[in-house]
Write the structure tokens for this entry.
Amino acid sequence: MSAGPAPIGHLAVTTQRDTDDTLKALEASRGRLLAAARAGRLGKLAVARATAARMIAAWTLMPAPHDPVAHVEAAHAQARIHLARLTEHPPDVEVPSVMTADIFAQLTDSRPPAAPGRRYTYTPRKVLRRVLDHGLDHLNQIDQWLTWQRHGVAPTPTDGWASSLVTLPGDRLPLAAADLAAWLWRIDQVALLLVQHAAGLSKTKLDWIPPNSGWPLRRVLHHVARSEVLYSASLDEALPEEPLARYVEASRRFGERLAAAYAAGADPSVLYVTLYGVVSTPAGVAREVLSAETGLAEGT
């Protein structure tokens, strides 16, 4: 994993001309990609990668509090709305995310996967499992990081959970209202414990970088917050199944978020942070999308 997020500061000043030029470039890139796909010059995998780039950018552009503890609290409140609706979805529906094993490796600077292209998928029970397991894993990480800081004791990896790449038999079982209520109680307790543990951390503890250049706890907490919303909203906010329709919808969501971020300007109370806790800016996010799509177009 990479060493940690960029320093947190005010958004870089972006002129109206810069904004207009970026929006025009993004719209032109979208048009070229759709034309190439419809002409058969761009395959489904490339379209999927472009869809992922725009959807991940849209997630990054959800405004977040600078304070990572406040971010965890706000994200849980947002996620809770989606989690409470999980019984409205068929229990065996399995919705594909734009995330894949190789995109995860790219975003976290980790080792390339043995089976690239494997997709994250979600069922109602799998959403609950991932939210709970993810929270528990990082709750444990906070304690282990503090022990590492104080006593130099390296952490012991917790590998008992199954990732979003894995769908267990129990993930497709029916979900009754009583089942959901029990899951939500457990998830609420873990969210509360995360907030309580993190609220007592000093700036020094939050920003301490481990000897192996792993993530500081500030980044971990922003990642937990982003991930809970990603998991919980995966069914309510599922993209269309058809590849080009997926890309068009991801483009719409990204475009709306980018326009809102530009309209908000350099708001010092707002942070834009990636799914894996790295601080960014609207202009930086737009550049990454353009770079990704330019690379795909050059590969045709």
Q: What stands out?
A: The radius of gyration is 20 Å. Strands lie at 64-65, 95-100, 119-122, 270-273, 279-280. The chain has ten helices and five strands. Confidence is low (pLDDT under 50) at residues 1-11.
